[in-house]
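ok so i was messing around last nite and threw this chain in just to see what happens. nothing serious, just curious
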Amino acid sequence: MDQYKLKNWVTKVINYAKSERPIEDSYVELKSELPADNHKAARQIGAHANASGNEQILWLVGIRQDGTIVGAKRAEVAKWYAQVKRLFDGPCPSLVNCLNIKCGSKVLVAMLFETNEAPYVINKKDGDREVPWREADGTRSASRKELLDLLSNSVQTPTVDLLKSSFGGRRTRTDDCWSASLESRIYVKPKSSKPIIIPAHDCNGWFCVRGRMGKRYFDNVCFAHDRDSSDYVIKGPQAVRVTAGALFYGKFFPVGIIDIHLSLPPVNVARPITVSESLVLVRRKSGVGDTWVETLGRAWPEE
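result:
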């Protein structure tokens, strides 16, 4: 992941935290400061890495869970992680990128870890060893099944570039009923030669208008090639068109910044393919009044 994509990821996380919206990404950890207990830090990083399914994980230091920015110092990170690394028995998650993110007068530190050498084993204080595992916000020892899954070399989540998205809403013939539709074009780049199978019935998503309308869930998420097909097979790098629709009731469709999220979980892959976008939604007029809304383009993240 290059610095541009990393910064965009961090910016989205910060905006979600500030608005007190849940961060729906189990690959992100927010820390107000670097953990003072190195054993605890090693266990948390190892657990996070082991549960990630060989995907990269992000630690963001200098921000509380409620979105309050307290700041951090990058100079401390290298020294701190050098001490933490010593507590691993064998390989440890690789710190592949460490980026300063300015947020007002404060600076956050984004740490990106590579986790492709799992399982990661921790030397405990009592001299024993442990393969830690992250579950929700806690840390525990990995189960036998989880260890077997780690060693089975499952397919990694492909890299996805969002090429373009458009969203529209139209009033139906029924009073106070709106039909919403989304079309997203993504480019999928598998990380191996193994085919990726995405069952359409497992796909889901939602949209909301910031400060004006809460989450509305899509009734269906389809791949545009065949609406009747139960799955989509990706055998190599390719563009994919995804559509989604929903019906909901309301006297009007609010306009503003609309946040959109899709989850496309492949078979036997730990992390789903996710598509997240923020667009500017405006109202359009017809001869009979305000009957539909549509997006003008991308709403760029706040700096």
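not much to say yet. The chain has a mean pLDDT of 84.
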